[in-house]
Amino acid sequence: MRIDCKHVWQYISAYIDDDVEADLRADIEKHLETCEICSAVLDSTRNVVVLVADDRVFELPAGFAERLHARLDEELTPNESS
User: Fold this and answer.
1) Residue range 7-54, pLDDT digits in tens
2) SS3 letters for the chain?
3) Distance from C-alpha of 9 to C-alpha of 41, rounded to nearest angstrom
4) Which of 5, 13, 20, 61 is most exposed by smallest CB count within 10 Å?
5) pTM score
6) Is 8:35 a contact under the CB 8 Å cutoff?
């Protein structure tokens, strides 16, 4: 069976979890050999899985929330000089 990107994306989670049949896994791997986009999607999806599974908490620098909100307000406020 020849699969396309749509098929790979549909099964990417099951592929990562090693929860696809051997024939489908082989087809996906063959597609990944030649498709840079799907390879990037696979890598990105794996990275998301790793990040979501990471239960560490990082403290933000002091004043980060205020600076973020000020910047968002600045970017979202229409420029009155236009």
Assistant:
1) 999 999 999 999 999 999 999 999 999 999 999 999 999 999 888 888
2) CCCCHHHHHHHHHHHHCCCCCHHHHHHHHHHHHHCHHHHHHHHHHHHHHHHHHCCCCCCCCCCHHHHHHHHHHHHHCCCCCC
3) 8
4) 61
5) 0.63
6) yes
